[in-house]
Specification:
Length: about 280
């Protein structure tokens, strides 16, 4: 039986079965480690994190919190909800950016993982290399991100931004996004998005303090970073296999070691988890 098949009454006492104070519903298995770490860091709550089996189920769980029927918590990706509008609730936690990847991935985490998988000494940490690539990516994805955002808001059913980034690299040996390939790809989609329309959403984005990187879809970002790591490892003549699972495990471990007051999202999560209401 899928968890969503349980009645609200059964869900409200599920914490007793797990002998914890609160059940926290997340979208899927990949979200567990991230939110578990944040709860351990910022709260004294004993929790059990339960995958809801997809965003639609998670949204239904969240709605029951808004109607004050549910006593559990929900932790979810923000996606484009900032631009669509949503009702804030202290027991519905949201990521700072589009997804957890936008918090997990930073120049520091990329640099640390590259050092780890290629076994570089500290003195050879490729800080400038990682900073330059990160800055380049953030600049080059503007048109991609804004087109995907507007298409989503207009509800035209066209998914602009794919999960993978490989086809948009300058070459098979490159980890640099090619803007011409992005433009060619967008021109082939059945969408008609004006620059004025994009600038309207861009103004809201900048006003909110977010960047293009913050709302870049997590799977695309994940793919782009893996590609960067593979290319740089090869340039260093290091024979490494970087699977999605291996990268994610490294990313979580590195993130936990780096996440502190200096991280741009630290105060956001600290504040969000401090507002949880306990019935």
């Amino acid at each position: 039986m899928n968890d969503f098949d349980y009645s609200i009454g059964a869900k409200n006492i599920l914490n007793k079965f797990h002998r914890v104070e609160k059940i926290v519903y997340v979208e899927g298995d990949d979200d567990i480690a991230f939110w578990e770490y944040l709860f351990e860091l910022f709260t004294d709550l004993s929790i059990e994190i339960v995958p809801a089996g997809g965003r639609p189920n998670l949204q239904k769980n969240a709605e029951l919190i808004r109607t004050e029927e549910a006593e559990y918590l929900v932790a979810m990706d923000s996606d484009y909800d900032l631009f669509k509008g949503f009702d804030h609730h202290p027991n519905i936690l949201r990521t700072y950016g589009y997804a957890i990847e936008n918090t997990l991935i930073s120049t520091k985490s990329i640099c640390k993982i590259l050092k780890n998988i290629t076994r570089l000494p500290n003195k050879n940490m490729p800080v400038d290399l990682c900073n330059d690539w990160f800055e380049s990516l953030t600049k080059k994805i503007r048109l991609f991100v804004l087109s995907d955002l507007v298409s989503n808001l207009e509800g035209n059913g066209v998914r602009v931004l794919p999960n993978g980034s490989d086809r948009f690299m300058a070459s098979k040996q490159s980890c640099e996004i090619c803007e011409d390939k992005i433009t060619e790809y967008l021109d082939g989609l059945p969408i008609d998005i004006t620059e004025d329309r994009m600038q309207k959403e861009e103004a809201l984005l900048l006003q909110s303090g977010l960047s293009y990187f913050d709302i870049l879809k997590g799977h695309f970002l994940f793919s782009a970073v893996i590609n960067f790591l593979k290319v740089q490892a090869k340039k260093l003549n290091k024979q490494v296999v970087i699977s999605s699972g291996m990268f994610y495990s490294n990313l979580i471990s590195v993130f936990e070691g780096l996440f502190n007051e200096a991280h741009p999202h630290f105060e956001y999560y600290k504040s969000s988890l401090s507002l949880i209401e306990i019935k």
